[in-house]
Amino acid sequence: MTLLYQWHELGRAWMAPLAYMAEANARIFSAPGSWLSSLPGAERIAAGNELIYRIGKDYEKPAWDIHEVEVEGRTVPVVEQEIIKKPFCRLLRFKRYTDDADSIKALKDDPVVLVVAPLSGHHATLLRDTVRTLLRDHKVYVTDWVDARMVPTSEGAFSLDDYVAYVEEFIRHIGADNLNVISVCQPTVPVLAAVSLMAARGEATPRSLVMMGGPIDARRSPTEVNSLATRNPLSWFENNVIHSVPMPYPGQGRAVYPGFLQHAGFIAMNPSRHFMSHWDFYANLVKGDLQDAESHRRFYDEYNAVLDMPAEYYLDTIRVVFQEFLLPRGKWKVNGELVNPAAIKKTALLSIEGELDDISGLGQTAAAHDLCTGIPKARHAHITVEGAGHYGIFSGRRWRDKVYPQVRDFIAKYAD
Description:
By secondary structure, the chain is of the alpha/beta class.
């Protein structure tokens, strides 16, 4: 492992004073009470400094910031609760409260949903809109993955097998009999594995599985993400993207795929779009379009906040999912147990894909139906969301107005 991570942290430390100075300049050249804001060109100076600040600043994990939700025309408070704390993940529940007797009964009767968030670069808060929308009609739990650089090496390694075990534990704790599981992107694979293994052992399985934009069979409609994994051997990933966490983080010495490298990869997939987004942000600040500028801030506060992934888990995923395709080939073993989706008999299955998804191509998620042959055909359903990219199927207006009503109705169909 090279010293790249250490050099990145050193560069970030050097950049911090410039970023803070730029933030101060942006404020004093834009504050209404400052005489500097009345100087010619003050708008451009303030906008340029804020752009420098946002490019150079550190982005911490965003808060979930879900404090209330509208349920049947009533606004009810929401409290975030930590249900289980594991070294690499917290199981959270967003609990709704009300004093109205009729509303209490309605809330208690709502279906239970576990949202399994991806561990693939961004924090689980990327699913904030997904969770907030589901709270209208459901009791919602969500997996909140921990940044690997914050996990001491004394906690041991974390592999793809461990991920599957975490999902199994969470399902058992909540209670599979009345549970519906929604997996978004990467976790479609370990979630399907977890439920398959539970079914094969004779354990209770969730009432329904909703799989959204995930690489169940990455051989179908391969994207650039898939191509990167197949054109390089596993040793290339070990030698080029795995680095050791430096001081002073609690996970010092842990082998990880660093978040800053993942972020660079996200940007490299579409650099022109990000350049124009930042240029538009600068222009909006200059002309005083504060609403669009604030939308830019909200998006990049989330997009630029990334976490480190444990090396074992990342390399397992590359090998199992994107290189050897072990799940669709029927050859994946988790802790010695063969993953056989055909063992699932009672759980209803809904797959959702975006027509324009450039991360998980069309057909990759729908492949789950071909594997789950034990589920009666009447309990299978699929949605292709026209005009939607990867994020559009679980976040934004298209998710709220088009996708969610179908997900809600599917879950309700199997709730009793």
